[in-house]
Amino acid sequence: YMNKLGFDGVRARRVRFTPTFSKFSGEVCRGIQIHVTDENAFSPFEYGMYLFRYLHYNYDLDINEGTIKRNFGTSRILEDNHLNTLLYDCREKAAQFKKSTEKYWVY
């Protein structure tokens, strides 16, 4: 699914593994392995937002709205028609922050 979104600088592949310790020791687990192919093109924040939403809607995650608000600052991530707007707002705020702090950068 994540590869179909067309993010630049990253590829994901399905993996299966069997942990040798922890809660799932000895059980076959499935997941994804994320390969960053171009660190300059990759946007981990946006990728993470889409990944979280996909996992939230397709798997039984035990996460309530309050936890989402605490970690993301908003629950707008869960609303289909708001994710692109939310990401746009985040980009705008990041650009403003960058501009207002440049004079303090050491390198």
Order of helices and strands: EEHHH
Write out the strand line-up for the largest beta sheet, numbering strands in chain order: 1-2
Radius of gyration: 17 Å
Number of strands: 2
- Tally the helices: what do you get? 3
Q: In which range does the helix fraction lie?
A: 25-40%
Report the major sheet: 2 strands, antiparallel
What does this structure look like?
- The chain has 3 helices and 2 strands, in the order ββααα.
- Helices cover 39% and strands 15% of the residues.
- The chain has a two-stranded antiparallel ribbon with strand order 1-2.
- It is α+β, with helices and mostly antiparallel strands.
Topology (SSEs and partners):
Blueprint: E1 10-17, E2 29-36, H1 44-58, H2 65-72, H3 83-101
Antiparallel strand pairs: 1-2
Short structural description:
With 107 residues, the chain is α+β, with helices and mostly antiparallel strands. It has three helices and two strands, in the order ββααα.
